[in-house]
Design a protein that fits this description.
- Helix 2 links the parallel strand 2 and strand 3.
- By secondary structure, the chain is α/β, with parallel strands linked by helices.
- It has a domain of 186 residues: Rossmann fold (3-Layer(aba) Sandwich).
- It contains eleven helices and eight strands.
- The chain starts with 6 loop residues before the first helix and ends with a helix.
- The chain binds zinc ion.
- The site of zinc ion has 7 residues, from loops.
């Protein structure tokens, strides 16, 4: 239904390639903070919609060794889960799987959205909040709201809700970061937001990242194509921006997200009989999660 990709769309110009499913010393620049934190002691978490997204922040994961959660198994329109590949990647990078890791197939989570089963998403948010709280997590990174895949945007809604719930229940101040899949990370680095973390990978870190990506079978073809087209250096920067500053749905109140416009085109072509829209399916999740987290 909605397209899914990591490496191809990450460069911001290969939307048509998107598949359907989908040393240790680097320079860490905290744009507005002066104290560098090597991250190794920090208790962190990564929460993404689909296994494979973590490739975009592979070096950040090496440094932080986070608890990792993904909502779906990344199977897309096929029947093959990507969770095993992500599990190998996490083990190589020193991260650990959390309680939610491929909970639903992509078809199942689309069905939950289409059927307006908002309680299922509120339940996921509560589970995430419990996991963050139990692990004493102080820093969360995950999908950004980009409007090209509704499950990515729902993931951001769940992260913001879980962070709000933990803050409210524990009075702890978790840091909340997002990273993009649908635009060039280098572009984001060129105009850093206050408080962003920008990691610039050295040669050894970049080698490990490329090796990890090529060792992820379901992503290998996309990675090879992206490296051939954009060069290896395109993957040598990782940008995490502060999230939760604005409501993840605000931008779609007046302009429909890309997934909705693409879905409508498929309906017009007779390819889809039903589509996920922001107003009918994603906004109700946002409202329910915000109410529960409050
Ligand atoms: Zn995805």
């Amino acid at each position: 239904m909605a397209k899914e990709s990591v490496w191809s769309v990450a460069k911001g110009s290969v939307r048509s390639v998107a598949n359907n499913s989908g040393n240790r010393r680097a320079n860490l620049t905290r744009v507005t903070m002066t104290v560098e934190n090597n991250g190794r002691e920090r208790k962190s978490a990564v929460i993404v919609a689909h296994p494979g997204h973590e490739l975009m922040i592979y070096h950040w994961i090496e440094r932080h060794r986070p608890l990792y959660c993904c909502l779906t198994d990344g199977s897309g329109g096929r029947a093959v889960s990507r969770v095993a590949s992500t599990t190998r990647l996490l083990e190589g990078a020193g991260a650990v799987r959390g309680p939610i890791c491929g909970r639903y197939s992509d078809k199942q989570i689309y069905r939950l959205l289409l059927d307006k089963q908002v309680h299922a998403f509120v339940g996921l948010m509560s589970e995430l909040a419990e996991a963050l709280s139990a692990a004493g997590v102080e820093c969360v990174a995950g999908d950004a709201t980009e409007g090209f895949n509704p499950v990515h945007d729902v993931c951001r809604i769940l992260i913001d809700g879980a962070v709000a719930m933990v803050r409210r229940q524990t009075r702890r101040q978790l840091r909340n970061y997002e990273f993009v899949l649908d635009s060039a990370p280098g572009g984001a680095a060129a105009s850093p937001t206050d408080g962003a973390e920008v990691l610039r990978l050295d040669g050894a870190a970049l080698e490990r990242k490329i090796a990890a990506a090529l060792g992820y079978p379901e992503m290998r073809a996309e990675v090879e194509a992206a490296v051939a087209r954009f060069g290896r250096q395109a993957f040598a920067v990782e940008v995490l921006k502060p999230a939760g500053v604005t409501s993840p749905g605000a931008r779609f109140e007046h302009e429909p997200p890309t997934y909705e416009r693409h879905g409508q085109m498929r309906v017009n072509e007779g390819l889809y009989s039903e589509i996920i829209t922001y107003g009918d399916h994603v906004r109700p999740v946002l409202r329910a999660v915000e109410d529960a987290a409050r």
